[in-house]
Amino acid sequence: MLLSIPKSLWAYRGFILGNVKREFQTKYRNSMLGAVWNVLNPLAMIVVYTMIFSKVMHARLLTTGHSFSYSIYLCAGTLIWGLFAEISGRMQSVFIDHANLLKKIHFPRLCLPASVVCSAMLNFSIVFSLFSLFLLLSGNFPGWPYLALLPVLLALLLFASGLGVTLGVLNVFFRDVGPLFGILLQFWFWATPIVYPANILPIKLLTYLPYNPMAGVVAACQTILVRGAWPHWADLLPVCLWGLLLSGLGWRLFRRHSAEIVDEL
Amino acid sequence: MGSITVSSLGKAYKQYPSRWSRLLEWLLPGNQERHRLHWVLRNISFSVRAGEAVGIMGVNGAGKSTLLKMISGTTIPTCGHVSVGGRVAALLELGMGFHPDFTGRQNVFMAGQLQGLPTRQIESLMPEIERFAEIGDYIDLPLRVYSSGMQVRLAFSVATAIRPDILIIDEALSVGDAYFQNKCYQRLAEYKSAGTTFVLVTHSVEDVVKHCDRVILLKDGRIHADGSAREVSNLYLDALFGATQASPPGHDLPDADVLVLETINQGDVFMQRPGYQKTEHRWGHGGAAIIDYKIVADGGEYPGRIESGVKTSFYFKVHFERDFNEVIPGFLIKSLDGVFLYGTNSCISSNRAERLCAHAGETCVYRFSLEINLNQGHYLLSFGISTGNPAAELLPLDRRYDSVIINVGCKQPFWGLIDLNAEFDCIGR
Questions:
Q1: Which residue of A has its CA nearest to B169?
Q2: pTM higher than 0.90
């Protein structure tokens, strides 16, 4: 049964990739610059963060001295958080958003969350390539530890899609889940050391930080990109455990209630 | 390939008394059920052979769409199961799940990919799809600017771009204009002869008798009837209009002697008359029975052939078992494929001149006289007797639908079913 998922997703790869392509095409249709906007938006974000924080506010991280360090810290955190927020946020409404399709065509339903993951990864890779280019040009490229991003991303994908599918199924039956998660996400963002460094937190709060699975992921990215060092792999343990747990729960919920999803839409 | 087997299929939706009860059911330990099952379909079993065309009829809410959704796989049955052989293409609720923001072309690709077609194949089918849909430049505009007719054109073109083994259509075609409908039915006929099984939900009796071999009538979530298109579509009309359905005319005194002579025999000799159709559909509430009929044209009784345009009298004899203070005899003509050509009743044809009453034990003879201005061919006659107020509701006592077949000859050739006696002149030059 578990093996049949990758099989059916593979059989429908044309549909999944087509979804990614169509979404990309549709986003900027009727705009003159078209796909260029996909590049301009993140570029603007990187420029704003670096210009404002490093040149105007002269914000520095205490640990490392160079002028871009805080900007890189900020970008590393927000980019990885952005990927997480996009996947989980869009997945929680994926079945509701595609009600029309689900009611009319018979196809493996997990194609829809899979399309979300693919298109979020595409957006992320565009932004992240630009960011990497910036690192290279400004002489801050981390070197070999850059490769450690791959396992970090995989752990994040597991966690985000597990959470997303769980919420997605729940949201069909309990429509409060969507708005509730939106609010939760805001608190979660500020409870994770993304904008501020973890060491400014009081010791009391700091002991709770490992319970936030996103803290480990964000910290790993920051370690790699800001300090150019290998991450502490142990920090990723919570996110992997949560990821497995939620994927299991999501899968169980999906199997038990997939027949009812269409009835409820 | 192409067969459908449905066995003891049922579908129920869960209904919870309040918003919280589902949450409680999910969260609380122990498997206490807090919902009520609302059954929309129950105990549905039938099978469809490859290449057969089946119509599904029923009043709104009878469960037709739910049944189609289960056959096409979008809705999972609560009990029983469906097995289909081969590739299914379905047009449910007027669409293929098109996305309003995508262009027609993008939607075609999406629909194709959803059927598991590789992109290259969709590309090669694209010109044919565009040609068939005939929506011109709209193909590159987002779907939200389409009219519903254009959406159906595109959806039908995509669904049938490759001949499916099973094609399921839920009322979609009724949205298209007559030109496109005709085109669709042509394609369906082509595919049908190539072996495609075809399941159609429609409210049009005419479409069903024209295009389906068989009709399944659903009523209150169960199969009410399953049989030939003409037979079952009659039942459908009854289900729709119940007591108010068409009913025809009467007259008694003059000429009636022809039949009255034979009234000594009170038995039902209807079935021994020439032209009687065993496949008739007879129904009614009883209290009266149509027991005999006679056709007279050009002085001949039960003519083997009635010439178009010749005044013809149709007599029928009714035996009453109870008193009725108003009875309304009725009469109608249909083509062999079920097209309703003409119907009338005593009130209409006598201009409401007189009220007919009947007494228990009495036998009356009624006559409708008319010129059969029809093209050559065979036609089916129906006779009926009802009671009640013709302005409000009629209660059918005995109706014999499609009970007599007549053969009409026509010396003057023309096209179509009905002779409208056109005159032609050349006015100047």
A1: A104
A2: no
φ and ψ at residue B292, rounded to 5 degrees: -160, 160
Return d(Cα B424, Cα B411) in angstroms, integer. 18
Range B85-96 burial, b when 16+ CB lie within 10 A, else e? eebbbbbbebbb
CB neighbour list of residue A54: distance below 8 Å, 6 or more residues apart: A67, A68, A70, A71
With b for 16 or more beta-carbon neighbours within 10 A and e for fewer, the B327-342 pattern comes to bbbbbbbbbeebeeeb
Contact B116 A12 (CB under 8 A): yes
The H-or-E segment that residue B234 falls in is helix B229-241
The residues that bridge with B223 in the sheet, in sequence order, are B218
* Distances from the Cα of B48 to the Cα of B1, B29, B55, B85, angstroms: 11, 44, 11, 10
Q: Read off φ and ψ for residue A250, nearest 5 degrees.
A: -60, -45
Chosen for mutation from A17, A104, A111 (greatest number of chain B CBs closer than 10 Å) is A104
Q: Per-residue pLDDT for B382 more than 90?
A: yes
CATH code at B245-409:
2.70.50.60
Distance from the Cα of A97 to chain B's closest Cα (Å) equals: 11
Residues of A with CB under 8 A from a CB of B: 11-12, 14-15, 18-19, 22, 25-26, 29, 100-107, 173-174, 258-260, 262-263
A17-47 tens-digit pLDDT = 888 888 887 777 767 776 677 778 777 877 7
- Residue spans in chain B of domains classed CATH 3.40.50.300: 4-87+164-240
The token pair that represents A140 in the structure block: 């801050």
Indicate the pLDDT class of residue A157, thresholds 50, 70 and 90.
very high
The verdict on domain B4-87+164-240 having CATH code 3.30.390.50 is: no
What are the φ and ψ backbone dihedral angles of A127, each rounded to 5 degrees? -65, -45
Measure the CA–CA gap between B331 and A136, rounded to whole angstroms. 91
